[in-house]
Amino acid sequence: MKAIWAVLTVLLVFTVSCKSTDKNSLGPQGSFEVQSIKKDSVADKEMTINFNAENGQINGKGVCNSYSSTYVVSGTNIKFSPAMSTKMMCPEGTTLEYNFFQALLNASSYKLKRGKLTLFDADEAVLLTASEN
């Protein structure tokens, strides 16, 4: 009987010690305004990314269209699924929105420091920067 309690105690201690209390372990959280895609500034376009870490979903506004997607975080790695978006006609923003959705698809890691989110591709090239709202 003592052996069973000893095993249960060890398992309980191990389980509690493995649970992370670090907010960043869930990845980015909250609302961000996109500042740049690759080296192109888009700060005047009011593009947004809203992260819901509890259910692994994002949504927001591109140049003309609303969108949503899912994502998975593991450490500093991040992977987005293809975005679903509305199909509003947007002559001035079509290329920007395409580049935005491609940046999300090609993202493989992220850095979040002082309210600035940076997404990187597999070669560590900057794909997107955004500022926390």
UniProtKB/TrEMBL annotation:
It comes from Leeuwenhoekiella nanhaiensis. Coiled coil: none annotated. It comes from the Bacteria. Residues 29-129 form the DUF306 domain. Pfam families: META (PF03724). Gene3D superfamilies: 2.40.128.270. This is DUF306 domain-containing protein.
